[in-house]
Each structure stands twice: as C-alpha cells, then as structure tokens.
Amino acid sequence: MIITRRVVNTAVSLTGLAAFLGLTPLRLIGEALAQSATAADVAKPVSLPDMALGPKDAAVTITEYASMTCPHCARFAEDVFPKIKAEYIDTHKIRYVFREFPLDLKAAAGAMLARCIAKDDGAKYFAVIDTLFRSQDTWTGSKTTESLKLIGKQTGLTGDEVESCLKDQALLDKIAADQKYANEVLKVNSTPTFFINGEMVKGETSFEELKKKIDPLLKK
C-alpha cells in the first residue's frame, strides 16, 4: 500500500486535519516488475535527503523502511535498534539510514512531523521517531491531532506550526515519491524492510540475526 496523490489531495484539503488524519483506505499496489535492486539503487535518495546516523564511508550501511503506525517497527525500535546503535553506530562501524514507508495517512502525518521537527538534523530525527514509536498507541488513537501537537510542543513547535507541517503538500508529495520508488524499484511492500549493503531483509528481525549479517561484512 502506498499513499497516492489522489488520497493526498483529499487529505490536505481545507476540510481540516480530521480528514487528513483519518484512516483512509489506500490503493494496493501489485508486485513490482522492476529488476532486482542493487546497493546503488538502495543508496539513491529520491526526493528527500536521507536521515542517517554513522559515518558516510562506513563499510556497512543498513537502510530501514518503516511505517510510523507499524507495531512491528515500533517493537524493533524499542528492542533491537538500541543494541545496534550501541554496538555498531556509536562505535562508528556502520551507517544506519531510516526511510519513511507510510502504510496509512496517520503514518504519513507522523513522518511529516518528524521531518518538520528535525529539519536536516539526523540525530534529532531519530529522537523524534523514537518518541513516535514509543507513544504509538497514544497518537494513533482517536486524538491524533492533539497528540501530535503535544509532541511538536515538546520540541519547540507551536500548534499552528504543527498544523502547517501536516498540510505541507510538497513534503507529502516527496514522501509519496520516495515510497513509490521503494516499492517499484526496490520491491519494498511491507514494513519493516531492511537493506544491508543492498541485501533485502524483510520483516521484524532480531539483533542476533542482524549481527550474523553485519559482522562478516565488517571483516572484508
């Protein structure tokens, strides 16, 4: 499922944030006919700059595609990512890239807010998505607008600035374009999906399984 321009236009119309933040059914995409993705395909940011931690010249790059409303992604962020960060990112062994793949409009709203809060600051962006994942049950409920405004307020944004962010058609179009590229070229169709130096790993995975893939690449 991806967000489409038709759905987006309805979502950010002047009918207000209630329509934007509703769970609008999204169009299901069939299997992509693209060739197998390469590491170069994965490394190519399309519309939005990558949000990443770790050195650009690291021997290993992990790219995660996630949806802010995905419970599997939230569990990974809470249980597995801190171990990856401590062992590999903080020690400058790998580069970790996070890319948005919203499965519904609430997920798109969360992704947009994270971009608006962080600007080009990767560390700040990862802090915001950590907050979004940890409070997923709250802000994806019936009071999404109020919850996102509260998160925005905690980072220095006013309520009006949050609303302006969520109505930013250009930003939403870029997220949609990057999601379309991920689906059609990289064959991402579920979350979380990871690429380790271009090799796809689908679904929620453990630290131990990722470690088995990372360590041999570091020894090359």
Written overview of the protein:
The chain is an alpha+beta fold. Strands 1-3-2-4-5 form a five-stranded mixed sheet, with helices on both faces. Helix 6 packs antiparallel against helix 7. The protein starts with a helix and ends with a helix.
How much β-strand is present in the residues? 5-15%
Strand order of the largest sheet: 1-3-2-4-5
- Provide the gyration radius in Å: 17 Å
Q: Give the terminus-to-terminus CA distance.
A: 37 Å
User: Assembly state here?
Assistant: single chain
> Can you tell me the overall shape?
globular
Number of helices: 12
Number of strands: 5
Average residue pLDDT: 85
Low-confidence stretches: 4-35
Summarize this structure as a short list of keywords or feature phrases.
single chain; 220 residues; five-stranded mixed beta sheet; 12 helices; 5 strands; 51% helix; globular
Brief overview:
51% of the residues lie in helices and 11% in strands. With 220 residues, the protein is of the alpha+beta class.
Question: What secondary-structure arrangement, pairings included, does this model have?
Answer:
Elements: H1 5-11, H2 17-20, H3 39-43, E1 51-53, E2 60-66, H4 71-79, H5 81-89, E3 94-100, H6 105-118, H7 122-134, H8 136-139, H9 144-154, H10 159-166, H11 169-184, E4 193-196, E5 199-202, H12 207-218
Parallel strand pairs: 2-3
Antiparallel strand pairs: 1-3, 2-4, 4-5
Helix pairs in contact: 6-7, 9-10
